From TrEMBL:
Its main location: membrane. GO terms for molecular function: NADH dehydrogenase (ubiquinone) activity; NADH dehydrogenase activity. It comes from the Bacteria. One of its GO terms (biological process) is ATP synthesis coupled electron transport. Keywords: Electron transport, Membrane, NAD, Respiratory chain, Translocase, Transmembrane, Transmembrane helix, Transport, Ubiquinone. The lineage of its organism: Bacteria, Pseudomonadati, Pseudomonadota, Alphaproteobacteria, Sphingomonadales. It comes from Sphingomonas leidyi. One of its GO terms (cellular component) is membrane. Its EC number is 7.1.1.2. This is NADH-ubiquinone oxidoreductase chain 5. Residues 484-504 are annotated as: Disordered. NCBIfam families: NDH_I_L, PRK06590.1. PANTHER family: NADH-UBIQUINONE OXIDOREDUCTASE CHAIN 5 (PTHR42829:SF2).
Length: 707
């Protein structure tokens, strides 16, 4: 048994033990088992990644009982899973440079989320169940990223869907949490239908579900056609678009994105895990894994670029008007995923994976930092009731500040022969913007630049509303509850506090004209315990250094080619062109970042009354953004209400009025009427029974005599 087996299966074992043990041994035992297994998996993952970085890959240089694969890496067999005719599905764990990146991302963030949850969920009565779900989620994601065939990938794909349903609906006593979990599950099933059709079509065309075999044969299918929906289409275009539909659902791209903000109903650590390192990155990973297929279809790449850029723009516009701190970060995630997809669409798969890598650190940092703020403010999530918190929770403030510097892309571009240096997002996001220009995708380039401005604006807006200005705590019902009941800082009934916070979404008039009194109301915010602060500090290191330290392996022409070694379709020519773009292109993202910072500073520090005046002046545009482009209302009108109407029709007219009436209910009615008639004959009087016997005897004698 090799290290990769321990990395993948330790979280599963921990989930089973924690789930079965539940509260039998208290809450500490399940937490120790699950958290310890993840830190062990993390400790085993980093050496694999570092060995690929240094070129020491494969079983010859590492002690693994595995089979080497071309280009570097190995496949660790587990067992033969299925045999059906000519199709053989082996359960095997593929380890190459792409897998190594995901192993580090998934195990590192998950381990820190587990540790953080020790403090955040300390008053939750169902801690064993929560930690079991976290570990199960991690196992499913690890199965996905180590898959060597499409069926195994689909197993992990559905596994993270199941685990996300359990985690989003963790507070199952809350109707809103149940609704959000069901919504995530249903929307992802739409995407999964496309993914399944893509897998079926791929097996039909290639005769195998083995990923390396498929990717090796993909160039031979260039120009071929396949029958689909009664017409002939390019084979690779059909297959890639079907696979991409699955990626759209899992990674919350425009059209199948509506589940993502509602997933905030789950506990904050769940948000960090789902939106930073696991479920939402599965689609990006899948597209990069299958990149040799996508390279055979210019149409598919064009669709990926368009959808990614559109999602990037849409989510950024919505993030500028939200007041819930977690929803701002959630839409930020949606927008950053759009960056990753349009990077893949222009052929810069290395840049897409680089942004996935850096994003995991600074987005997990921002989510967990938001959780620390919510913890300090007695579960209040509305930024309108924050303000002036930087002196009260200084560690949380500084870590979130570094996370903001990372996501907004603060850094010094390399334009005068100097080496570019900056925070994590500066290296990865700027690489995407420059690659889109170098690839000739000018529309995507300008969208990327404008979204960089919006990203800077809503990120600094969050910082200024939360940590600067005068305290506005007095207007918060949560703070008033804390002060009046003298509970202050405890996590009393998580499912009745944080979950309820998301139930009271403010209306447009409340935001524009609502009075938010200044003052503290006598409340004293508190810094989080060390088990919550340690993960924040460690993630801060990733947000600061991950871009500068690792950019060479991901996007440098020669170093990138040496690192990836065929794991993705690495375009060395594009990477050369990306580094040779004009100076104004390299400065564009930095200028956009500074513009967004200046606008946010002017609107929320210099003139705090300006946002309300601006929103009133452009009310239709403001409402369009505040209501998330009315996607929920549109889907409710087009799909939800008709589905309920059809369901009621079949229920009332079909099931009750037809099937039940003439089926089981009808038969029961006949039996009931028959029993009523029989009961009338059973009077209980002896003379009645004697009279009936006499009638029977008389009838029998009459029949005999008549014969």
């Amino acid at each position: 048994m090799s290290a990769i087996h321990f990395i993948v299966f330790l979280p599963l074992l921990a989930a089973v033990v924690a789930g079965l043990a539940n509260k039998s041994f208290g809450s500490t035992f399940p937490k120790v088992i699950t958290t310890g297994s993840l830190f062990i998996a993390c400790a085993l993952s980093w050496p694999i990644f570092l060995h690929f970085l240094t070129g020491n890959f494969g079983p010859d240089t590492m002690v693994y009982d595995a089979n080497a694969i071309p280009g570097g890496g190995w496949v660790a067999p587990v067992f033969t899973w299925m045999l059906s005719g000519s199709m053989q599905v082996d359960w095997a764990l593929r380890v190459d440079s792409l897998t190594a990146v995901m192993l580090v991302v998934v195990t590192s963030v998950s381990a820190l989320v587990h540790l953080y949850s020790w403090g955040y969920m300390s008053e939750e009565p169902d801690q064993p169940r929560f930690f079991a779900y976290l570990s199960l989620f991690t196992f499913a994601m690890l199965m996905l990223v180590t898959a060597n065939n499409l069926v195994q990938m689909f197993f992990g794909w559905e596994g993270v869907g199941l685990a996300s349903y359990l985690l989003i609906g963790f507070w199952f006593r809350k109707p809103s949490a149940n609704a959000a979990a069901i919504k995530a599950f249903v929307v992802n099933r739409v995407g999964d239908l496309g993914f399944m059709l893509g897998i079926f079509g791929t097996f039909l065309v290639f005769g195998t579900i083995d990923i390396p075999t498929i990717l090796a044969a993909a160039p031979n299918m260039h120009g071929s056609t396949i029958g689909f929906l009664g017409h002939r289409f390019d084979t690779m275009t059909v297959l890639c678009l079907l696979l991409f539909v699955g990626a759209m659902g899992k990674s919350a791209q425009l059209g199948l994105h509506t589940w993502l903000p509602d997933a905030m109903e789950g506990p904050t650590p769940v948000s960090a895990l789902i939106h930073a390192a696991t479920m939402v990155t599965a689609g990006v990973f899948m597209v990069c894994r299958m990149s040799p297929m996508f390279e055979q279809s210019a149409v598919a790449l064009g669709v990926v670029t368009f959808v990614g850029a559109a999602t990037c723009f849409f989510a950024a516009t919505v993030g500028t008007t939200q007041t819930d701190i977690k929803r701002v970060i959630a839409y930020s995630t949606c927008s950053q995923l759009g960056y990753m997809f349009f990077a893949a669409g222009v052929g810069a798969y290395g840049a897409a994976m680089f942004h996935l890598f850096t994003h995991a650190f600074f987005k997990a940092l921002l989510f967990l930092g938001a959780g620390s703020v919510i913890h300090a403010m007695h579960h209040e999530q509305d930024m309108r009731f924050y303000g002036g918190l930087r002196k009260h929770i200084p560690v949380t403030f500084w870590t979130m500040l570094f996370g903001t510097l990372a996501i907004t892309g603060v850094g010094i571009p390399g334009i005068f022969g100097n080496t570019a240096f900056g925070f994590a997002g500066f290296h990865s996001k700027d690489a995407i913007i420059e690659a889109s220009y170098a690839a000739g995708q000018t529309s995507a380039f300008w969208v990327g630049v404008f979204v960089a401005l919006l990203t800077s604006f809503y990120s600094w807006r969050l910082v200024f509303l939360t940590f600067y200005g005068k305290p506005r705590w007095a207007g918060s019902e949560h703070i008033q509850h804390a002060v009046h009941d003298h509970h202050g800082h405890g996590h009393d009934d998580h499912h009745d506090s944080e979950a309820e916070a998301s139930d009271h979404a403010p209306t447009a008039d409340e935001i524009l004209h609502g009075h938010h009194p200044e003052g503290t109301a006598g409340y004293h915010p508190h810094e989080s315990p060390w088990v919550m602060l340690v993960p924040l500090v460690l993630l801060t290191l990733g947000a600061i250094f991950a871009g500068f330290v690792f950019h060479g392996a991901f996007i440098e022409p020669s170093a990138g080619e040496s690192y990836w070694r065929g794991a993705i379709a690495f375009n060395e020519h594009l990477m050369h062109a990306m580094h040779e773009v004009p100076v104004w292109v390299k400065l564009s993202a930095t200028f956009a970042m500074l513009s967004g910072l200046a606008i946010a500073y002017g609107a929320y520090i210099v003139s705090p009354s300006f946002p309300a005046k601006f929103a009133e002046a452009f009310r239709p545009l403001y409402l369009f953004s505040l209501n998330k482009w009315y996607f929920d209302e549109l889907y409710n009108f087009l799909f939800v209400r008709p589905a309920f109407a059809i369901g009621r029709l079949f229920w009332k007219k079909g099931d009750e009025a037809t099937i039940d009436r003439f089926g089981p209910n009808g038969a029961a009615k006949v039996v009931q009427l028959g029993s009523f008639g029989a009961a009338r004959l059973q009077s209980g009087y002896v003379y009645a029974y004697a009279f009936i016997m006499l009638i029977g005897l008389t009838a029998a004698l009459t029949w005999v005599i008549a014969r």
